[in-house]
């Protein structure tokens, strides 16, 4: 994908500005306000001082939305980015869009909800020609897990080990309760609805791809270790192990696994990110990608999960990437002369602080830095 970079040096002084010996009174030609709505424990998604500072240098003011108040009573905003779920919040966004149809909402709630459910999350991958998904079955019946121990028809041609996943993928504690099932006995005690996904050995390496609009960054991460065939036959070992405990086990490696650490070509990553982003209709996602080898020895890539608005603070160089993305979304917005009042869109503590401070986070005389094509 085409990349752009943000200038690291300030633009030339505007005509009529103050001299070098004093501060200028020239205001930025455009100041945008982004309202972000997230749970407090999700603020580290990207609301970091380093991002806030860079965004401010380019004329972007980030304001926390108070989710306890109607969104239509807050602002004014030039863009709203959110990571809140549920019908009440969705209704607030819809009401806000009716009043402010020209203000971008990142991202559409209906599209987000599709990937919050593992029953539908990976449906879009079937339409892509460059990646696939592991074989899996969906267990709807609450009594089915116990039956699976003796029912070959339910498992079909799935082979152990299997990954048991809750259907929820909303970032809650319950959504992370995954386990690796080595043999049938490990299915006992699991509760439906759930997804049983075939585990594929992939050298203990996972590629986490962060997508921001048209930009994609691939980060190599440690993953579930190689599972030898002997482990599946070991009746003295646990039949199922929670993911939280697997990280405590001694890693098991297979011959040739060093090659698994080599990331896929950037051109391939860009292609998959572009196709997947369009398929789900979302600007801010990441997805987990693994690589295995087929019978002919050719690389095969599988998508395991798709997440909305992930922790971008874990992505190298996330600040300029997000700033550039928001600027692109905001450029079509008209320049406003009105300024948010003290405390607009803030919680109680922030509002009190704002009443005693200037509303602008842009230093006096500063201008949004210019963009340069890489």
UniProtKB/TrEMBL annotation:
Region (Disordered): 1-25, 336-374
Keywords: ATP-binding, Kinase, Magnesium, Metal-binding, Nucleotide-binding, Transferase
Binding sites annotated in the UniProt record for Mg(2+) 1: 288, 305
Cited Pfam families: Ins134_P3_kin, Ins134_P3_kin_N
Entry keyword Glycoprotein: no
Catalytic activity as recorded in UniProt: 1D-myo-inositol 1,3,4-trisphosphate + ATP = 1D-myo-inositol 1,3,4,6-tetrakisphosphate + ADP + H(+); 1D-myo-inositol 1,3,4-trisphosphate + ATP = 1D-myo-inositol 1,3,4,5-tetrakisphosphate + ADP + H(+); 1D-myo-inositol 3,4,5,6-tetrakisphosphate + ATP = 1D-myo-inositol 1,3,4,5,6-pentakisphosphate + ADP + H(+)
InterPro entries in alphabetical order: ATP-grasp (IPR011761), Inositol_tetrakis-P_1-kinase (IPR008656), InsP(3)kin_ATP-grasp (IPR040464), ITPK1_N (IPR041429)
Residues annotated as domain ATP-grasp: 123-336
Superkingdom: Eukaryota
EC class of the enzyme, as a word: transferase
EC number from the UniProt entry: 2.7.1.134
Record-level Gene Ontology MF annotations: ATP binding; inositol-1,3,4-trisphosphate 5-kinase activity; inositol-1,3,4-trisphosphate 6-kinase activity; inositol-3,4,5,6-tetrakisphosphate 1-kinase activity; magnesium ion binding
Cofactor(s) demanded: Mg(2+)
Listed GO biological process terms: inositol trisphosphate metabolic process
Cofactor binding remark: Binds 2 magnesium ions per subunit.
Subunit structure: Monomer.
PANTHER family: INOSITOL-TETRAKISPHOSPHATE 1-KINASE (PTHR14217), INOSITOL-TETRAKISPHOSPHATE 1-KINASE 4 (PTHR14217:SF2)
Similarity-based family: Belongs to the ITPK1 family.
Protein's recorded name: Inositol-tetrakisphosphate 1-kinase
């Amino acid at each position: 994908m085409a990349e752009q970079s943000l200038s690291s040096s300030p633009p030339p002084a505007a005509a009529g500005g103050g001299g070098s010996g004093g501060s200028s009174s020239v205001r930025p030609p455009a100041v945008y306000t982004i309202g972000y709505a997230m749970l407090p424990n999700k603020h580290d998604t990207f609301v970091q001082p380093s991002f806030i500072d860079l965004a401010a240098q380019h004329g972007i003011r980030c304001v926390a939305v108070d989710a306890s108040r109607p969104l239509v009573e807050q602002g004014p905003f030039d863009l709203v980015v959110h990571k809140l779920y549920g019908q009440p919040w969705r209704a607030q966004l819809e009401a806000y869009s009716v009043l402010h149809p020209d203000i971008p909402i990142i991202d559409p709630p209906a599209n987000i909800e599709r990937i919050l459910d593992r029953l539908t999350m990976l449906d879009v991958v079937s339409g892509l020609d460059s990646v696939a998904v592991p074989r899996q079955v969906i267990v709807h019946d609450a009594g089915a897990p116990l039956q699976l121990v003796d029912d070959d028809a339910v498992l079909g041609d799935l082979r152990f080990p299997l990954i048991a996943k809750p259907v929820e993928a909303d970032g809650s504690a319950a959504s992370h309760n995954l386990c690796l099932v080595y043999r049938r006995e490990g299915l006992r005690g699991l509760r439906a609805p759930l997804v049983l996904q075939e585990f594929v050995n992939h050298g203990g390496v996972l590629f986490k791809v962060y997508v921001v609009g048209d930009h994609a960054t691939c980060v190599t991460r440690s993953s579930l270790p190689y599972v030898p065939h002997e482990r599946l036959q070991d009746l003295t070992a646990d039949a199922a192990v929670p993911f939280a405990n697997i990280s405590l086990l001694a890693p098991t490696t297979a011959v040739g696994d060093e090659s698994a650490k080599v990331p896929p070509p950037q051109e391939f990553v860009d292609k998959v990110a572009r196709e997947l982003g369009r398929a789900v209709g979302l600007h801010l996602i990441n997805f987990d990608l693994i690589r295995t080898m087929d019978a002919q020895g050719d690389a095969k890539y599988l998508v395991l999960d798709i997440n909305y608005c992930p922790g971008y603070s874990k992505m190298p160089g996330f600040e300029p990437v997000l700033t550039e993305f928001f600027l692109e979304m905001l450029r079509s917005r008209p320049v406003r002369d009105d300024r948010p009042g003290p405390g607009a869109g803030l919680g109680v503590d922030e509002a009190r602080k704002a009443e005693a401070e200037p509303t602008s986070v842009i230093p006096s005389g500063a201008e949004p830095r210019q963009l340069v094509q890489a």
